[in-house]
Amino acid sequence: MTAAIDTLAVRDLTKIFRIKTGGFRQSDLKAVDGVDISISPGRTLAVVGESGSGKTTLARLILRLLEPTRGTVLLEDVDITGMEGAALEEKRARMQIVFQDPYDSLSPWQTVGRTVAEPLLLHQNLSKQQAAEPVAAMLERVGLSPEHARRYPHELSGGQAQRVGIARAMITNPALVVLDEPTSSLDMSVQSQILLLLQSLQEERNISYLFISHDLTVVRYIAHDLAVMYLGKVVEAGPAARIFASPRHPYTEALLKAAPRPDPAHKTEHVYLVGEQPSALDRAPGCPLYGRCPIAEDVCADTPQELADIGAGRRVACWKRT
Fold first, then answer.
1. How far apart are CA 37 and CA 211, in angstroms?
2. Which of 29, 65, 76, 316 is 20 to 30 A off residue 109, Cα-Cα?
3. Per the domain annotation, does 232 fall within a domain?
4. Domain assignment of residue 128, yes or no
5. C-alpha–C-alpha distance, residues 161 and 153, integer Å
6. Average pLDDT, stretch 292-308?
7. Three-state DSSP class for 35?
8. Residue 276 domain-assigned (yes or no)
9. Rounded Cα gap, residues 121 and 277, in angstroms
C-alpha cells in the first residue's frame, strides 16, 4: 500500500534577519531556526509559543510571503521553495490563510461578494458572472445569506466578517489553510461557532490546517498535533492529546501549567521559568531555554538540543527528558 502524501512537509526551515545593533554593527537574528514539521491530509497542527517565538514568521515562510534563508517547503510533495511566476501562482490557490483580525483582512471598498470572488478571478480566470454562483454557495456554506454579498465589511459583525474570511480562503478548495489566531478577536460564543465551522469544513473537504495560537484552551479543542516553539525552534512536537496529558519539555510543561482551566475544582500547579523570554540575539548557543529552565545544568548552555524521537510520534529537544 502506498503511503499517504503529507499535505505539508517543512524541512530545516530557517529565516535569519540581518539587523543593525548600533553604529555600523549588524547581528543575525534567527526568527525561525531549523524547523521540521509536517501535516497529513485532514489534520490540524497547532503551533504554540509566547510572542516572539517565531510562529507567525514560520507561517509566512510556508506561504511564501517571506523567503527562507535555507530549508524546503513541500506542498503535496512538490517543493515550492524556489517557485516563481505562474507555477507559484498555481500553488497559491492550494494554500490560503484566515487572519486574526477579520476587519483588517477585508478591503473596506469591496463588497463581500467581490472579496470572496477574488481568488476565483485570480486563480481560475472566471468572470464575475461565472463566479457569482460558487460565491453564493460558499457564503451559504459558512452561515451567511446571499444578501450578505452586497454588504461591505463595516456592515458586518465580527463573527460575520470572519465567516467572510473563511469563505474567501475556502473558495478555491485549498489543501492547506493557515489559521492565524482566527478566533482571538471574537466573543466566546462566536469563537465556538467559528471553531465548529472550521471543523465541519475540514471533515467535509479533507483540508489540513496550520493553526497558530496562544490560546491553549482552543488548541486543546481543535488540534490533532502540536508543535511548541521557543525562540525560533520547535522544542516539542507530537500528538496533541499526549502532549497535553504528559508534557516532556520544561517549556511545554510551563506553558500548559500556566494556562487557565475552566474547571473551578482544578488546582493549577505552576512551573516557574526564571525571568522573561530573552531577545533572539541573546540566545545561548546550546538550549534556547537555558537561563530560564528550572532543571538546566551547565552543559545545557553550550550543547545544542536537537529534537529526539521518544516514541509514540513524539519528539523533544531536551536531553534530560529523552
1. 13
2. 65
3. yes
4. no
5. 7
6. 89
7. strand
8. no
9. 44
Q: DSSP per residue over 112-143, as a string? A: HHHHHHHHHHHHS---HHHHHHHHHHHHHHTT
| Single-letter residue type at 248 | R
Length, in residues, of the chain:
322
Listed as own residue / partner, the contacts of 288-292 with beta carbons closer than 8 Å and 24 or more positions apart are: 288/230, 288/231, 288/232, 288/233, 288/235, 289/230, 289/235, 289/250, 289/251
Number of domains the chain is built from? 1
Asked if the model's pLDDT at residue 13 lies above 60, the reply is: yes
β-pair partners for 37: 10
Residues 6+ apart with CB under 8 A from 16: 28, 29, 30, 31, 69
Give the domain extent around 71: 8-94+174-249
pLDDT at 265 over 60: no
Nearest to 220 by CA among 177, 184, 263, 256: 256
- pLDDT tens digits, residue range 150-205? 999 999 999 999 999 999 999 999 999 999 999 887 888 899 999 999 999 999 99
Q: What grid cell was written down for 303? A: 550543547
Strands 176-180 and 8-22, sheet pairing: unpaired
Q: What pTM, to 2 d.p., does this model score?
A: 0.92
Please name the helix (run of DSSP H) or strand (run of DSSP E) that holds residue 199, with its range, or none.
helix 188-205
In CATH, what number is assigned to the domain containing residue 34? 3.40.50.300
Q: Is residue 110 part of a domain?
A: no
**Long-range Cβ pairs for the range 134-142 (8 Å, 24+):** 134/171, 135/167, 135/171, 138/167, 138/170, 138/171, 139/112, 139/113, 139/164, 139/167, 141/167, 141/170, 141/201, 142/166, 142/167, 142/170, 142/197, 142/201
Three cell numbers written together for 241: 492529546
